[in-house]
Automatic annotation (TrEMBL), chain A:
<protein>
    <submittedName>
        <fullName>Na+/H+ antiporter subunit C</fullName>
    </submittedName>
</protein>
<feature type="transmembrane region" description="Helical">
    <location>
        <begin position="72"/>
        <end position="96"/>
    </location>
</feature>
<dbReference type="GO" id="GO:0005886">
    <property type="term" value="C:plasma membrane"/>
</dbReference>
<keyword id="KW-1003">Cell membrane</keyword>
<keyword id="KW-0472">Membrane</keyword>
<feature type="transmembrane region" description="Helical">
    <location>
        <begin position="26"/>
        <end position="51"/>
    </location>
</feature>
<comment type="similarity">
    <text>Belongs to the CPA3 antiporters (TC 2.A.63) subunit C family.</text>
</comment>
<dbReference type="InterPro" id="IPR050601">
    <property type="entry name" value="CPA3_antiporter_subunitC"/>
</dbReference>
<keyword id="KW-1133">Transmembrane helix</keyword>
From TrEMBL, chain B:
<feature type="transmembrane region" description="Helical">
    <location>
        <begin position="687"/>
        <end position="705"/>
    </location>
</feature>
<feature type="transmembrane region" description="Helical">
    <location>
        <begin position="162"/>
        <end position="185"/>
    </location>
</feature>
<feature type="transmembrane region" description="Helical">
    <location>
        <begin position="649"/>
        <end position="667"/>
    </location>
</feature>
<feature type="domain" description="MrpA C-terminal/MbhE">
    <location>
        <begin position="682"/>
        <end position="762"/>
    </location>
</feature>
<feature type="transmembrane region" description="Helical">
    <location>
        <begin position="850"/>
        <end position="875"/>
    </location>
</feature>
<feature type="transmembrane region" description="Helical">
    <location>
        <begin position="566"/>
        <end position="585"/>
    </location>
</feature>
<keyword id="KW-0472">Membrane</keyword>
<keyword id="KW-0812">Transmembrane</keyword>
<feature type="transmembrane region" description="Helical">
    <location>
        <begin position="790"/>
        <end position="812"/>
    </location>
</feature>
């Protein structure tokens, strides 16, 4: 089971990184969403995998899973929504203003190698 | 008054000009002056105790773990500098009030001045070397603001930047040196450090620490070869020059050398470095001053020269020399501040500072002439003024150095420096005031009003009185300061007449030689023109250019404007760091048993991989990619459910809905397909980076999952005390609203800020250049025939109350079962957004006109007030309480103060999410995509 989760997180990361390296804003937004999934799952996994022991106190239950990563990830999910919304808005604004959804500095404005 | 209060008062005073400046510059200046006077009074009240050998202290814990505490002390040395800083500060405030013109903003000027004054007071009253460094950097920053005060002058800006660069570089070195000193002494308290002479001088770190600290002191006190910034800083308004460059900032380096004199001085290294630098500075500064054409330039280089004199005296390392240094600090501050203010008066009266354009002012500005004459004679070391006394002591000390092995050469060079000093001092008088009156001054010269001459007059009075009665006037202060420097009682005796000593002969020689040199000044000037003169500014600029070029080359090779390139490099760096950490760190063996793979989990895994892979492959078809992202999000939620995290699953699934809606709304305006603009090589390279990153994260996750916790988890505490302290059974929720409530408080604030930023961007889009483009927007997709299908409208309207009840239910159960403010907020947002989607923006807005930004503020406020409520019970911020309400006929109902906090979370989440979605809807409406075509009024309903 541990291998399944680890490989899934690895896949999500690879997909996220590949998409954030694209040159158009929407692909980058998608990539960042994927990276958020991967990061949230990773943080959650640091509490180790436990099945059927939610951290909700009940009489007669012996053990609970680690609640701390869950609390961390819960706020992280909401914050990553805020971040995605902001980035989407920026992408939209840039497209409406500039008529183009490329994210790189135009070549004529660049300095250094590759200009 | 506590020394801490004395140091803090000027900072409080810095707030006043901003409040008072509307009542006029006089009111602001009086307010600042009153604060300074109050602080000075507090200082003076300590005099009897300090003279009795006591040290007033004030201790406040700040960061005791690293030895950084707000410890203040007031001893003789601090007293001497404190009197100079606050006393001259008072005179400068008065002078600045009349010096600055109507156009100069007096408020900011006085604020900077007070900030600077506070920083200086902080330096001299600190008993903690780390805190002193903080104040030290503050003086660099505030002096930057003061020197560059006239922002329209390029020289002012360049001078300020150069001063900041040089002094801040020295400051960095000094931080390292002071840390070493603290390491060796085992304490960062100055009073403890200076008691450990043997330990420090015997340590291997002594020499590096000494060099680094001296670098800081020399740059600050403009010692050769770092002297070049001081004259460039003369582009500042004259009150600044008079304050910073006579009495205070440049004396900070001197102060530091004096403060650390007990532990650093007395070694051959100290003697050779400090005394030689001082002597060289004294000579170089004097010679350059002699040929300056700018009045303030002359004073600046003479200041450099006099600072060299004091440095040399401290460098000698003898108690008598240190005492002489203390005396000269006072003497120099009095006559130099007066001279600077006098130069400002001349500038004010004649509109020029160029000595060439002056001369013959004696009869035109008689009062100014009198003031400058006395101060300049003191600077030249002519009896009976205080400058004579200190010069005599300096020459006497220099003459004694014959015994230390330096031979007579120190004495000879010191006499030469004194000779030059006589020449430039007299030149100031002769070339500006004497000679025939001219008729080509840029402005008719006149003596100023009392506001300008009162300050220098008082100082000149002090020059005379302290020269005539040095023991009565200054004996006590110098004795106290010298005792603090040398850590031994001192009983100095000053006299104008010492008998026929070698020093007297050297002094006479210097005066005669100086007069002779001035007589042949034009010949000397002609000679100097033929000698090569290194231009410090050009060297500095060249160095700066080289460093900037290296830095720019480095930066631009990584970030050249291509986001992809910068991010790839970042990812690779992360992977490399991770691999390096893995190989150098310690990892436990992977002993944790694995969970068995169940068919459900396997199915989920396959689904996830297929969805992710398809998504990447088809990501250029954006709407399809969005659907696939939704699938991935759904599986992530299922993963949370499977691994005992119901709260996370609920949050993830609601966030998923909101995110997809948001992206769909945005896609309305973005191209529906991503153009292919990367080649195979680029895509291959990106895939390689992505694979590496994915492998790294995957392996790391696996490694973590197969190992037990390296340290005992604090989860046990949370689980045990969740009910006892927080009154809730849902441990995750209790952590959010109670144990880590402060964190959550910060996070809802961030979320709120994100919402407001989106709102602001929308406003900019709707108002700015883009609005015309938006109004003329032509959609790139065919629209549906029925924009608001009846079925959807009816269903969402029926669902609305149901969703709100579900939201309320989730909110209320959150403390004891999965749910809570975050999830409830998201559910309610989804319910509201559905109305927008189904019935249109206009219809929805007409019915639920909720100011979402107010909701965010209300939420943060509610959470804050709940947290602050704990104070009234005498508990720390965000401590919660709970209890039960017994109603007849119903089960006992629990209440908890955490509910208030969770309400805040709920409101902030609803506000932020709705503000984001609402903003997008407004853009759509502006583009005329909501029902009626643009230009015609909206009907308000379908």
């Amino acid at each position: 089971m541990e291998f399944l989760l680890a490989s899934a997180i690895g896949c999500l990361t690879a997909a996220g990184v590949y998409l954030t390296l694209r040159k158009r804003s929407f692909a980058v937004v998608l990539g960042m969403t994927m990276l958020s999934y991967a990061t949230n799952l990773f943080l959650f996994a640091t509490g180790r995998l436990v099945v059927d022991r939610p951290p909700i106190l009940q009489d007669g239950v012996a053990g609970y899973t680690d609640p701390i990563p869950q609390a961390l990830v819960l706020t992280a999910i909401v914050i990553s929504f805020g971040m995605t919304a902001l980035v989407v808005m920026m992408a939209l604004g840039a497209f409406v203003e500039g008529g183009d959804d490329r994210i790189d500095l135009p070549r004529r404005d660049r300095k250094g190698p590759g200009a | 008054m506590s020394p801490a209060l004395i140091a803090i008062l000027p900072f409080l005073g810095a707030l006043l000009p901003g409040l008072m400046v509307r009542s006029g510059r006089s009111a602001a200046a009086i307010a600042c002056g009153a604060v300074t006077a109050f602080a000075a009074l507090g200082l003076l009240l300590h005099i009897p105790a300090v003279l009795a050998g006591e040290v007033a202290t004030a201790r406040l814990s700040w960061m005791p773990q690293i030895g950084l505490n707000a410890d203040f002390m007031l001893d003789g040395l601090g007293l001497l500098f404190g009197i100079l800083i606050l006393g001259i500060g008072l005179l400068i405030t008065l002078y600045a009030r009349f010096y600055l013109s109507e156009r100069d903003p007096a408020g900011p000027f006085l604020t900077y001045l007070m900030l600077f004054q506070g920083a200086m007071t902080g330096i001299v009253l600190s008993d903690n070397i780390l805190m002193m460094l903080v104040f030290w950097e503050l003086t660099s920053l505030s002096s930057f603001l003061l020197i560059g005060f006239w922002k329209h002058l390029p020289e002012g800006r360049q001078g300020a930047r150069m001063a900041l660069t040089v002094t801040a570089t020295g400051g960095l070195a000094m931080i390292a040196g002071c840390l070493m000193l603290g390491q060796v002494a085992g304490s960062y308290r100055l009073s403890e450090i200076i008691a450990q002479r043997e330990a420090i001088q015997g340590s291997a770190l002594y020499l590096p620490a000494l060099l680094l600290i001296l670098l800081g002191a020399f740059t600050k006190s403009a010692q050769f070869p770092f002297h070049f910034w001081l004259p460039r800083a003369m582009a500042a308004p004259t009150p600044v020059s008079a304050y910073l460059h006579s009495a205070t900032m440049v004396k900070a380096g001197i102060f530091l050398m004096a403060r650390l004199w007990p532990v650093l001085a007395g070694t051959p290294e100290w003697f050779w470095i400090v005394a030689t630098t001082g002597l060289a500075t004294m000579l170089v500064g004097g010679v350059i001053a002699l040929f300056q054409d700018d009045l303030k330039g002359l004073l600046a280089y003479s200041t450099v020269s006099h600072l060299g004199l004091i440095t040399m005296l401290l460098g000698f390392g003898t108690e008598a020399a240190a005492t002489a240094a203390m005396f000269h600090i006072i003497a120099h501050a009095t006559f130099k501040a007066a001279l600077f203010m006098g130069a400002g008066i001349i500038d004010h009266g004649t509109h020029t500072r160029s000595i060439r354009q002056l001369g013959g002012l004696r009869s035109l500005m008689p009062l100014t002439f009198g003031l400058i004459l006395v101060a300049a004679l003191s600077m030249a070391g002519i009896p009976p003024f205080n400058g004579f006394l200190s010069k005599e002591m300096m020459l006497e000390q220099a003459a004694h150095q014959g015994e230390t092995g330096a031979g007579w050469i120190i004495g000879a060079l010191a006499t030469l420096a004194a000779l030059v000093s006589v020449a430039y001092s007299l030149r100031l008088v002769a070339h500006v005031f004497l000679g025939p009156a001219r008729d080509d001054y840029p402005h008719a010269p006149h003596d100023p009003g009392p506001g300008l001459w009162a300050g220098p007059a008082l100082l000149v009075g002090l020059v005379v009185v302290t020269g005539l009665f040095p023991n009565a006037m200054l004996g006590w202060l110098v004795a106290a300061a010298a005792a603090a420097v040398t850590q031994a009682p001192q009983h100095p005796h000053f006299a104008l007449w010492h008998g026929l000593t070698p020093a007297l002969a050297m002094s006479a020689l210097a005066i005669l030689g100086g007069i002779l040199l001035l007589r042949h000044w034009h010949a000397a000037e002609a000679l100097r023109r033929h000698l090569p003169r290194p231009d410090a500014k050009r060297i500095f600029d060249a160095t700066e250019r080289v460093i900037a070029r290296i830095a720019r080359g480095f930066t631009e090779s990584f970030t050249n404007g291509s986001m992809s390139r910068a991010l790839s490099l970042l990812m690779l760096t992360c992977v490399i760091c991770g691999v390096a950490a893995w190989h150098t760190g310690l990892a436990r063996p992977d002993l944790r048993p694995m969970l068995p793979v169940t068919p459900v989990a396997l199915m989920g895994w396959v689904l996830m991989l297929v969805a992710t892979g398809t998504m990447v492959a088809l990501h250029r078809r954006r709407i399809l990619a969005l659907v696939l992202v939704g699938i991935v999000g759904l599986i992530v939620s299922c993963t949370f459910v499977y691994f005992s995290a119901p709260d996370l699953a609920l949050t993830q699934i609601t966030v998923e809905v909101v995110t997809v809606i948001l992206m769909l709304l945005a896609l309305n305006f973005l191209p529906k397909r991503t153009a292919l603009d990367t080649g195979n090589v680029k895509r291959g390279a990106d895939a390689f980076v992505a694979t590496l990153a994915g492998l790294g994260v995957g392996i790391l996750t696996y490694a973590i999952l197969r190992r037990d916790f390296a340290f005992p988890s604090i989860a046990g505490y949370m689980v045990e005390n969740s009910y006892k302290l927080g009154g809730g059974d849902n441990v995750v929720n209790v952590i959010l609203v109670d144990f880590r409530g402060f964190d959550t408080y910060g996070e809802i604030t961030v979320l709120g800020i994100a919402g407001l930023a989106i709102f602001a961007m929308t406003e900019a889009l709707l108002r700015g250049r883009a609005s015309a483009r938006l109004r003329a927007w032509v959609g790139d997709m065919r629209r549906a025939g029925d924009r608001h299908p009846l079925m959807l409208v009816v269903v969402t309207r029926v669902l609305m109350p149901l969703s709100l009840v579900v939201g309320l239910f989730i909110f209320l159960r959150g403390h004891n079962a999965p749910g809570g403010g975050f999830i409830a907020g998201l559910v309610v947002s989804v319910a509201l957004v559905m109305q927008y989607m189904a019935s249109g923006y206009a219809w929805a807005m007409a019915r639920q006109n909720i100011p979402y930004h107010a909701l965010i503020g209300l939420g943060v406020l509610a959470a804050g007030i709940t947290g602050a409520g704990a104070w009234f019970a005498g508990m720390p911020f965000l401590t919660s309480a709970y209890g039960y309400v017994h109603l007849w006929g119903v089960e006992p109902v629990e209440w908890a103060t955490a509910m208030g906090f969770d309400t805040g979370v709920f409101l902030a989440v609803v506000g932020a999410v709705m503000l984001a979605l609402n903003s997008l809807s407004r853009i759509a409406r502006a583009a005329g995509q909501d029902g009626a075509p643009s230009g015609t009024p909206q009907k308000g309903s379908r």
